[in-house]
Write a structure and sequence with these properties.
5-stranded parallel beta sheet; Zinc Finger, Delta Prime, domain 3; disordered C terminus; Helicase, Ruva Protein, domain 3; 21 helices; 4 domains; 460 residues; elongated; disordered N terminus; 48% helix; 5 strands; mainly alpha; Rossmann fold
Length: 460
Amino acid sequence: MSQNLFGSPSAFGAKAETGAHFEEPAKTAPLAARMRPCTLQKVGGQQHLIGKDGPLRRVFDGGELGSMILWGPPGTGKTTLARLLAQQAEMVFKPFSAVLSGIKDVRAAMAEAEQNHRATGKPTLLFVDEIHRFNKAQQDAFLPFVESGDITLIGATTENPSFEVIGPLLSRLTVHILQPLTEEDLIPVMREALADCDRGLGAKRITVTDEQFLALARYASGDARRALTALEAAVRQVDVSMALTDDALEHVFAGRALLFDKHGEQHFDLISALHKSIRNSDPDASLYWFVRMLEAGEQPMYLARRLVRMASEDIGLADPGALRVAMSARDAYHFLGSPEGDLALAQLVVYLAVAPKSNSVYKAFGAIQREVRQGYAHPVPNHLRNAPTAMMKEAGYGEGYKYAHDEGGISDMDCLPEKLVGTRWYQPCNDGVEVRIAERLERLRAEIQSRPSRESDPPK
C-alpha cells in the first residue's frame, strides 16, 4: 500500500505514479509559490476541514474522494488542498484555469477523460481554478461527465457558489468553506519562509521581530499569499544579515490594497456592516466601515445613495430632517468631489448613526405592498370618486364626500375600502419626532370619536 501524507496506508492504492506530480517552482518564482505546502501538516488553518474529524481529513486518511467546491477568500489554501488531494488520488490529474480556458478546451478535456475512464476504469481528477469565471455553457459541459463518473471535479472559487455555479452542477458537488487565516496561522508560515534556505529567504539571514511579524499578519487580512509577498518585498529592502527595519515595512504598507471586491461578496459584506452599524446607532463602527470602503476604492456616490436610503429606511419620521441632511451631503460631495467631499459623507454617516431610529414607514409601506399584491383589488369607495359627468353623479359617485376644510381639518369619513376600514398599518415609534406624530394622531382620533355619529347627521 502507498503511504498517505500522514505516513499511514492510503486507500488510493500502491501506484503512486498515477497520482499528480508537480514540478518545483523556479528559484525566481514568487516566495508564495516557492513556499506552497507539500504536505498536509504544513497547511495553515482550516482545522474545521483538515483537523480531527474534518471532512477533508477523512479523505486524506483513506476515505473516498468526491467532486467538490473549495470556496474561500484568496490565499487561504484552496489550490494547495486541491494539489494535495491530487497527489493522493490514483487518478490522472488535469488542471484547468477558468481564466485561460475556453469551451473548446473543456470539451476536449471531457472527451479525453471519457476515453481514459473507458480504458482504465478510473476517473480523471479535474481541478478548475476560479471556476466562477466559467459561464453557464462551460459549466454545463461538466455535467454529464460528473454524472457518469468520468471525472472527479474539484473547483476553487472566491465567490459564493450559490450565485456563481449553476444549480445542476452544484447539486452534484459538496461545498467546503475555507476561512481567512488568523494571525496565529500566518506568523508560523512567515517564520518558516524566513528560515528556509532552499525555498525561502533563509540565505539572507534577516532578523524580524515578533511585533513586525504581527504587523505583517494584520496587513495580510487572512491571506497567506499576501503575507509572504509583503515579507518578501520588505526583506528585499535590507542587506544580508541585517534586521528588518520599520521603515521597510512602512514602505510595503503604504501601497496597501484592502480585501475588497466591488462586485463580489466582500462588497455586500462591507455595505451590510455599514448599514447595520448605523442602524445600531454606533458612530465609531459606522465610520470605520465607511472608511474601509472608501480606502478600498468604492465609488463615493454609491455610498451616498445607500446613505440616502438609510435616512428613509432606518431614521424615517423619527427625524424627518435626516433625509434633507442626506441629500445635502450627496450634493456637497457631487460639488466638491474627493477628497474634500468625503468629509461631507463622513458627517452624514455620524449624523445618521446618532439620529433617533424608526422603521415605522418602512414597515407600513411593506405591509401595504403585501396587501396590494396578495389581496383583493378593492374598489374605490363611491364617496372618494370624482363625478365629472351627470351619469357618474346618478351612479352615486362623490355622494357622501366630506370636505375636510369645512370640518375643522378632519372629518369622520372613512377613506379606505369598506373591507379594510379600521386597519392601521402605520404605527409611530416612541422616539424623536414620531413621539409628537403619535400624540397628534391620538388627538385627531379622539376628536373624531367625540363627534356625533354619522347616523345623527342631518340628511343631505
